[in-house]
Design goal:
By secondary structure, the protein is mainly α. Helix content is 71%, strand content 0%. Helix 8 packs across helix 10 and helix 12 packs antiparallel against helix 13. The chain is flat, with a radius of gyration of 31 Å.
């Protein structure tokens, strides 16, 4: 068998052109989405002005619609139908994100702009006392104290019950009893807050004869908080690998000690986050507080006796009884700003605890 001789390349002879790659395709430049967004906003404003639309929200919706349509049309022409569908889905996701963020940002901006007027150390350290809703002055110290006590008592009541219920459902629950408990937890998750307030009002105040107090409001808040704690803790416990339980049980450790020393420490970050979110959820409830705590312009540090104030109730009372008074409006907005800051601090604390307690990656 003879070997074929390869002809030597003559110096100076140009290389043969390479065939075009079939893996590359035309793509829109990276700045194209930004240019389309700017053009869509300008076109939406122009159409809104030309059509006589007075609402800026309508202008924004027109710009969003134009952004989606133009992105899809350009991608279909340049990149092909498959990539155009991907661009369409991405555009819809971005538009939905912006539509969700804009009202939230507007709410925060409006609350800060209106609430900062009277928010100062005097406002945070004094109560309404004998200040009427038409007068300037007064503060929210009594409302902050009431909120901290009521939410704290509700947390003390609901967290042990919720965590123990979740442990039962995950570790021990079998048969009809576990299914019944799960069903009632699901029902309690969607119960309106006013129903919880009416239940405590009829049982604690009307039947047993106790008076209005912060503790009565705390019991209603605990009813709203328990299902949230149960559900969040249950999901966190289910994420613990069964291998950890089996390894502990194989060493002869009792099941209760395995739960206490292995399962709970592994999931403590997620459980803490769920508890913090549940606290943030009940901190802004007004209906049960209005029915059971009844409000008090003076400082009442005893949650077990007499009416008490709270931040959500203070906001409602200042707005409802203002009668057009600018001072009452300013106090209501300032209290709303404090309540938002309180809930934001709880959420940040929950994220910090979750990151601190999260399993460390690597060695």
């Amino acid at each position: 068998m003879s070997n074929a001789t390869v002809p030597a390349k003559t110096p100076g002879t140009p290389d043969a052109p390479k065939p075009p790659s079939t893996l590359s395709a035309a793509r829109l430049p990276r700045w194209a989405p930004w240019a389309i967004a700017v053009g869509s906003i300008a076109a939406g404003c122009a159409i809104g002005l030309g059509a006589g639309l007075s609402s800026r929200i309508q202008w924004g919706l027109l710009a969003a619609l134009l952004f989606v349509l133009v992105s899809y049309a350009l991608a279909a022409k340049v990149e092909g139908g498959r990539q155009a569908k991907d661009r369409l889905a991405t555009s819809i996701v971005w538009v939905a994100f912006i539509l969700a963020v804009v009202p939230l940002a507007s709410l925060v901006y409006e609350t800060i702009a209106r609430g900062i007027k009277v928010l100062d150390p005097y406002f945070l350290s004094h109560s309404m006392g004998f200040v009427t809703s038409y007068q300037e002055g007064g503060g929210i110290y009594h409302a902050i104290l009431g909120t901290l006590e009521q939410v704290g008592i509700a947390t003390v009541i609901s967290v042990p019950i919720g965590i123990l219920t979740a442990i039962y459902l995950v570790e021990y629950g079998r048969g009809k009893l576990a299914k019944a408990v799960t069903f009632f937890v699901d029902v309690m998750t969607g119960i309106p807050s006013i129903v919880a307030g009416l239940f405590i009002l009829s049982f604690w105040i009307l039947i047993l004869g106790f008076g209005f107090s912060g503790f009565a409001g705390s019991m209603a808040l605990a009813i709203l908080m328990i299902p949230v704690v149960v559900r969040s803790t249950e999901e966190m416990l289910k994420l613990v690998p069964n291998e950890l339980r089996e390894a502990s049980l194989a060493l002869g450790i009792p099941k209760w000690r395995t739960i206490l020393k292995v399962v709970l420490p592994t999931s403590i970050g997620g459980i803490t986050t769920g508890v913090m979110l549940a606290v943030a959820r009940i901190a802004g409830e007004t209906a049960p507080v209005l029915l059971l705590v009844f409000g008090n312009p003076l400082i009442n540090g005893n949650p077990f006796e007499g009416p008490q104030a709270s931040l959500p109730l203070y906001i409602y009372q200042q707005y409802a009884s203002s009668g057009g008074s600018q001072a009452a409006y300013d106090r209501a907005w300032a209290a709303a700003l404090v309540l938002i800051a309180f809930i934001m601090i709880l959420n940040l604390a929950a994220r910090g605890v979750a990151r601190w307690k999260a399993p460390k990656a690597g060695r």
